[in-house]
Amino acid sequence: MSTPQRVLIDDIETNRVPILAFRNLGKRFVKPLDLAARIAAHLGAGYREEVVHAVDNVSLSIHEGEVVGLVGESGCGKSTLGRMLAGILAPSAGEILYRDKAVSRMNPAERREWALDVQMIFQDPYASLNPRLRVREIVGEAPRYHGMVKPRELNSYVAEVLRRVGLDPGYLRRYPHQFSGGQRQRIGIARALAVKPRFLVCDEAVAALDVSIQAQVLNLFMHLREELALTYLFISHDLGVVEHLSDRVVIMYLGRIVEIAATETLFEHPNHPYTRALLVEVPRIDARRRRFAALQGEIPSPLHPPSGCHFHPRCPHAMPHCRESAPPLREIAPGHWSACFLNDEPGNPHV
Amino acid sequence: MSEPLLVVEELQTHFHTRQGTARAVDGVSFQVDQGQILGLVGESGSGKSVTGFSILGLVDPPGRVVGGEVRFHGENLLALPPERMRKLRGSRIAMIFQDPMMTLNPVLRIDTQMMEAVLAHDAVSRRAARARCREALARVGIPAPEERLKAYPHQFSGGMRQRVAIAIAFLHKPDLIIADEPTTALDVTIQAQILAEAQDLCRDSGTAMIWITHDLAVVAGLADRLCVMYAGRVVESGDIDAVLDHPRHPYTRGLIDSVPSRNRRGQTLAQIPGMAPSLLNLPSGCAFRPRCPQRTERCKQAPALDELRPGHRVRCFHPLRIDTPVESPA
After folding, report:
1. CA-CA distance, B203 to B35, in Å (whole number)?
2. Banded model confidence at residue B182, pLDDT cuts 50, 70, 90
3. Which terminal Cβ of chain A has fewer Cβ within 10 Å, N or C?
4. Where exactly are the structural domains of chain A?
5. Using an 8 Å Cβ cutoff, are A27 and A92 in contact?
């Protein structure tokens, strides 16, 4: 197999315009004080608004045709990031660029193009489909509304999309509850494909599926990528799935990107201590009767993240200044970025 | 040879519904030796959880255990009076659920619940009971156990809650623990911590465990033996290495091949066509027949679970040859 990964990395070096990029993107969620707390705060009690920095100053460029895997544990902000890119959440800081055009400076026509071109596929195939709509409406609603098909041709259009995701077009008039989990996920994919997107944000799109069904849906994703030349941001906590599918992998921890690398590099030469810990702990089918050696500590609450490098309380190599300032994301090898002060230390074996 | 710790023989648990009888567990047999970890693997609806519940006598109507034997220390649990069963449950056999909130009462403090569990089976002073609870929490890696005893379940994170549930399960150093997907809802690093705790505790106290999961990779690292279930039946069982390296049943093989793995990156995954059948409408004969690449006319009869090699049993008329490599050629 000629490696498509290589080609993509070369593309990045030739400075092509990325299909989607974000610069210093951030999202804060603020829980406002209720009336009683506001009065108490006014009287001098120590009430403050609770602020969560779900995504904190992240930047990345994604190139056409690339599959980027986004990995992290619960609360690391990976879903929030995906939702901002798909236009479901508005960023509270930074900028999203679609084909080099900042979303905030787009005119309505450009904005519509961005909104249609970037589609999202959700984790839960039970919660993300309206149970009272037939498949025809679920898949056909958006293209009809946006005038992409004539009303007369809607049925055949939807049937065509269903065929593309491996569903029987005869199911057009069925309701979501008449399908299995794997089939529902295909409906969700069909809904996204119906508006002819260029970029898919898949948020844990196979996490809820059984192993044998998961393989079917993963194969469908890879097949669609080739057939339609799609670009993916594949969000998952499952490193095995991400490794299988992605060209590049981004690791997040508590709202920040800690490492970016080509898939092969990341799995063979992980740099950040968090990435290394994650890789060690992934159960693998070929690792029998192993000793699970646990990374100590809990994932801290995003409400009160640790100072400096967010990972320092759990890091086996933490140094005093990790507590004080956050390490910047630095390029340690071509295309390999990591946010760790260890890389500045002389004689670090992992550089 | 002495009898194994637990012997499950031809266990049958059926759910009688208006649409018909669902044979959730249909003649399941396996055994667990002392201190052994058995992985019970299957997809949703394969009957793996119901098997666990049946052993403990926790099947709720419309489900009912209708046949078979569960011998624990040689005693048939299914014939035991409820009072005796309750004495065993929690002291000699314990269960860990996927959702720790099934174990924990949300309106009671941790100490209340844990001490209740101690005092239910042992006549000790409250003070001694409390000390034991504190020790148990410390053993599963909960920091500041004395303070945490006074907390309510909602004040714990998901991983911490699962540790409390595990601490409760190990309170009486049971002979057998049935763990039903206890790490499925947890993050990777937390899952590894829980697996490490469970491993340590089993080794230190000689406890045997049945680890029920859909995740082959988790049991690969943990279990000594493996039982693969499909549509209410065991289709393959044996030593973990034998089953994972040389699967003989086409379903086991299909499961292993559909896990994304290192050396096949970017290639099409082998997939099992179709989906698991409804238990209300099972195909006759071998239930895997409609999805099986090797099916023949003969598969319309039900195959038996045959011992092909010592300890390696397969329910298939056409078992795969042992030299069939697991990795598809690259």
Report:
1. 7
2. confident
3. N
4. 4-132+175-344
5. yes
- Is residue A250 within 8 Å of residue A60, measured between CB atoms? yes
Percentage of residues in chain B having pLDDT higher than 70 = 96
Q: Rounded to an integer, what distance in angstroms lies between the CA atom of residue A156 and that of residue A224? A: 20
Domain membership flag for residue B323: no
Q: What is the mean pLDDT of chain B?
A: 87
Closest residue in B to A300 (Cα–Cα): B157
* Inter-residue contact A327 to A273 (CB < 8 Å): no
Nearest CA in chain B to A243: B265
Q: Is the pLDDT of residue A134 over 90?
A: yes
Instruction: Please give the tally of structural domains in chain B.
Output: 1
* Nearest residue of B to residue A277, measured between CA atoms: B189
CA-CA distance, A314 to B96, in Å (whole number)?
A: 27
Burial A53-77 (b: 16+ CB within 10 A, else e): bbbbbbebbbbbbbbbbbbbbbbbb
Helix B158-169 to helix B188-205 angle, to the nearest 10 degrees? Answer: 10
Domain of B239: which CATH number? 3.40.50.300
| CB-based contact A297:B192 (threshold 8 Å) | no
What mean pLDDT is predicted for residues B58-86?
90
- Write the CB contacts of B242 (distance below 8 Å, at least 6 apart in sequence): B309, B311, B312
Q: pLDDT tens digits, residue range A225-270?
A: 988 999 999 999 888 889 999 999 999 999 999 999 999 999 999 9
The residue whose two tokens read 């979303």 is A103
Helix axes A154-164, A181-193, angle to 10 degrees: 120
Q: How many CB pairs under 8 A join A and B?
A: 145
The pTM for the full model equals 0.83
Residue B115 in domain: yes
Q: Supply the pLDDT for residue A182.
A: 84
Tokens standing for residue A221: 């994703």
* pLDDT value, residue A14: 52
Burial B266-296 (b: 16+ CB within 10 A, else e): beebbbbeebbbebeebeebbbbbebbeebe
A residues 54..93 contacting B (CB < 8 A): 73-74
In this prediction, residue A3 carries a pLDDT of 36
The CATH-assigned architecture of domain A4-132+175-344 is 3-Layer(aba) Sandwich (3.40)
Q: Which of B195, B214, B221 sits opposite A211 (nearest CB)?
A: B214
Q: In what order do the strands lie in the sheet with B63-72?
A: B20-32, B6-17, B63-72, B75-76
Query: Predicted ipTM?
Result: 0.78
Helix (H), strand (E) at residue B139? helix B126-139
Please check whether residue A237 touches B, CB under 8 A.
yes
- The pLDDT of residue A7 is above 60: no
The answer to whether residue B328 is domain-embedded is: no
- Inter-chain CB proximity A290 and B266 less than 8 Å: no
Chain B (239-258) residues lying within 8 Å, Cβ to Cβ, of chain A:
240-241, 244, 254-258
Helix, strand, coil percentages for chain A (3-state, nearest 5): 40, 20, 40
E strands, B167-224, where? 176-180, 208-213
Q: How do beta strands B208-213 and B37-41 pair?
A: parallel
Q: In terms of C-beta density within 10 A (0-12 exposed, 13-18 middle, 19 or more buried), how is residue B255 classed?
A: buried
CB A38 within 8 A of CB A3: no
Question: Which uninterrupted H or E stretch holds A235?
Answer: strand A231-236
Encoded tokens for A118:
């970037």
Domain that holds residue B91: 6-314
